[in-house]
UniProtKB/TrEMBL annotation:
<dbReference type="InterPro" id="IPR013780">
    <property type="entry name" value="Glyco_hydro_b"/>
</dbReference>
<feature type="region of interest" description="Disordered">
    <location>
        <begin position="1"/>
        <end position="20"/>
    </location>
</feature>
<dbReference type="Pfam" id="PF00128">
    <property type="entry name" value="Alpha-amylase"/>
</dbReference>
<keyword id="KW-0462">Maltose metabolism</keyword>
<keyword id="KW-0378">Hydrolase</keyword>
<dbReference type="InterPro" id="IPR017853">
    <property type="entry name" value="GH"/>
</dbReference>
<dbReference type="InterPro" id="IPR006047">
    <property type="entry name" value="GH13_cat_dom"/>
</dbReference>
<feature type="compositionally biased region" description="Low complexity">
    <location>
        <begin position="7"/>
        <end position="19"/>
    </location>
</feature>
<feature type="domain" description="Glycosyl hydrolase family 13 catalytic">
    <location>
        <begin position="34"/>
        <end position="453"/>
    </location>
</feature>
<dbReference type="InterPro" id="IPR045857">
    <property type="entry name" value="O16G_dom_2"/>
</dbReference>
<comment type="similarity">
    <text>Belongs to the glycosyl hydrolase 13 family.</text>
</comment>
<protein>
    <submittedName>
        <fullName>Glycoside hydrolase superfamily</fullName>
    </submittedName>
</protein>
<dbReference type="GO" id="GO:0016787">
    <property type="term" value="F:hydrolase activity"/>
</dbReference>
Length: 606
């Protein structure tokens, strides 16, 4: 049976009327598309993506069916960390365009019923920001206290040491010595990214002004970069050293959701509320949902939702991101269930994501990039992620099943400072151990941030039609673009792109169950299948995803067998399943298969 758009609309309206009114909001019902501007679309042939390039693809984004578009930073920046080092919050990085282009982008989005969410990077600035230039100039400069300056420590034999032993995320100590004033400044990331001192009310005012300026200009909210790092324990204590090879361990317990975080976030929350704005805080290094709920609880009036990192860190090894770890489905089950249940029960909200500009591609990491499984994997992951409780984020390229960079690529092709710094340091320390170095290189290839940053494959032409020019793009284009590209997928109803579009449409059609329903994990012990249900009132849906390349015979769990018996398949990534349906006793789930069964509703074609 086919249902028309009008019928769908009236159905979703009648559902909404029965929803609990207290915590319904537009941003819970939205889905988000993330753009990494440098790699999206280059309109003027300089090899770097730009805002006019984005504007030229708004219909493509609309066709995917998202409601919100988040752009990674486009503000003026020396680009030490690809724009996450802002040198002027009121100017655009010239290769990306200018303020007029941003106005046009916002207009173009609004004309298509979409909203613009901006990346707000205010834990730190660039060292080229005027505030920092002033701050470092002298101890009595009025901007001195806008950053975090401390006196050196000295060992017994007089060697100068940083004020504490915290490590920076991009290598070495988190403190840099500045000769001019004989003090160190704090930088949790690169030395060119000094941390702002949020203890200073002028800093907070300056951030509030930035937010208001952009909200007034028409942005609909913010993704807030490492926002849970803004309040530091003012004692700045050392952290215990556990690995003698690493004298600068992560100091997160002294700044991740630090002492004054909620005071600061409540200030931001007041502004957000005034504008009914979208907000998602990036919150690494915190694994207790109760801690994050303090910021995203509906009644807290701080942020709408947060990116937690537990899934992203799942395959990190004992010595961090690039030490070998293993992805195992049971770990994923327990993490997902923990966050899904906790946020639902406590009126919080999840940001759902498997990819972004800091991560390896999800097909390569959590499923299979082999040609025979790649499309199935992309669709399976879309089903698994997109129908959970929370707001889904699709990262550019994820919608067309892009995968990690080819293994044959040389280290010279890496562009990201995190991987490059790590590799240089690691090979220096472990020079003699070729095997260990090789193993580490494998991990870098799997998880490095560059994987998500290679250009979008638009078509089969030169450079995947990412650029209109003839010069090499700033980062290599993946070799597989003649078969894996957007133009072939948009027109193919069975593509990963159109599957993603269907999943996002399902959320809108069955708002009750897929947006506001509860989550329950089914068959916790199963090694290959991830099965969950979503329920609200009488309505229940079961989402089945096979994370393995095997045919799996599954004895349908008794708690869902009635749904299997009476339900209808809403969507699936194997065509046949949609016709034959399932029975209530057992079902053979094919390699990387995913399908969704809905109880109490007729099937629709999506
Ligand atoms: C966030 C960004 C990342 C950046 C870092 C420092 O984690 O997503 O790209 O390097 O913050 O700003
Ligand atoms: Ca360009």
């Amino acid at each position: 049976m086919t249902v028309t758009e009008t019928q769908l609309q009236s159905r979703s309206q009648s559902q909404s009327q029965s929803l609990p009114a207290n915590s319904r909001t537009w941003w819970k019902e939205s889905s988000v598309y993330q753009i990494y501007p440098a790699s999206f679309k280059d309109s003027n042939g300089d090899g770097i993506g730009d805002i006019p390039g984005i504007i030229s693809q708004l219909d493509y984004i609309k066709a995917l069916g998202v409601d919100v578009v988040w752009l990674s930073p486009i503000l003026q920046s020396p680009q030490v960390d690809m724009g996450y080092d802002v040198s002027d919050y009121y100017q655009i990085h010239p290769p990306y365009g200018n303020l007029k282009d941003v106005d046009m982008l916002i207009q173009g989005l609004h004309a298509r019923g979409m909203k613009y969410v901006m990346d707000l990077v205010v834990n730190h600035t660039s060292d080229q920001h005027e505030w920092f230039k002033q701050s470092r100039a002298s101890k009595d400069n009025k901007f001195r206290d806008w950053y975090i300056w401390k006196k050196p420590r000295y060992t017994a034999d007089g060697a100068r040491q940083p004020p504490n032993n915290w490590g920076a995320y991009f290598g070495g100590s988190a403190w840099k010595y500045d000769e001019q004033t004989d003090e160190y400044f704090l930088h949790l990331f690169a030395p060119e990214q000094p941390d702002l001192n949020w203890e200073n009310p002028q800093v907070r005012d300056a951030v509030h002004q930035i937010m208001r300026y952009w909200l007034d200009k028409g942005v609909s909210g913010f993704r807030m970069d490492v926002i849970n790092f803004i309040s530091k324990d003012q004692r700045f204590p050392d952290v215990p050293v556990v690995d003698p090879k690493n004298p600068y361990p992560e100091g997160a317990k002294y700044y991740a959701c630090g002492p004054r975080i909620h005071e600061y976030l409540q200030d931001l929350g007041r502004i957000l509320k005034e504008y009914d704005a979208f907000s998602v805080g990036e919150m690494p290094s915190v694994y207790d949902p109760a801690e994050i709920l303090n910021a995203v609880g509906f009644d807290r009036q701080e942020l709408g939702m947060a990116f937690q990192f537990e899934i992203m860190d799942i395959d990190h090894g004992p010595k961090g991101k690039f030490s070998p770890g293993k992805f195992c489905l049971k770990d994923l089950k327990s993490i997902v269930t923990k966050w899904q249940s906790f946020m639902y029960e406590n009126n919080g909200w999840n940001a759902l994501y498997l990819e972004n500009h800091d991560q390896g591609r999800s097909i390569s990491r959590f499923a299979s990039a082999k040609p025979e499984y790649r499309a199935l994997s992309g669709k399976m992951l879309a089903t698994f992620l997109g129908l959970q409780s929370g707001t889904p984020f699709v990262y550019q390229g994820q919608e067309i099943g892009m995968v990690n960079m080819p293994e044959s690529w040389d280290v010279q092709k890496f562009r990201d400072l995190e991987a490059i710094n790590f590799w240089n340091e690691f090979t220096q320390i472990n020079e003699e151990n070729a095997e260990l170095c090789n193993q580490t290189l494998k991990e870098i290839r799997l998880k490095s941030r560059d994987n998500g940053r290679i250009p979008i494959q638009w078509g089969p032409g030169k450079f995947a039609e990412f650029t209109s020019g003839t010069i090499d793009p700033w980062i290599g284009v993946n070799d597989d673009y003649d078969t894996w590209n957007a133009s072939s997928q948009v027109s193919d109803p069975s593509s990963v792109f159109n599957y993603w579009a269907s999943i996002l449409r399902l959320r809108r059609t069955w708002v009750d169950v897929f947006v506001y329903g509860s989550f329950k994990l089914i068959d916790e012990e199963h090694d290959d299948l991830f099965v969950y249900s979503r329920s609200l009132g009488e309505m229940r849906a079961i989402v089945v995803s096979n994370f393995s390349d095997k045919h799996v015979e599954w004895t349908v769990a008794s708690e869902v067998s009635s749904i299997f018996a009476g339900g209808k398949i809403l969507i699936g990534n194997y065509e046949k399943r949609q016709i034959t349906g399932v029975d209530d006793k057992s079902v053979v789930v094919k390699p990387f298969e995913a399908f969704v069964v809905l109880q109490n509703e007729p099937s629709i074609s999506v």
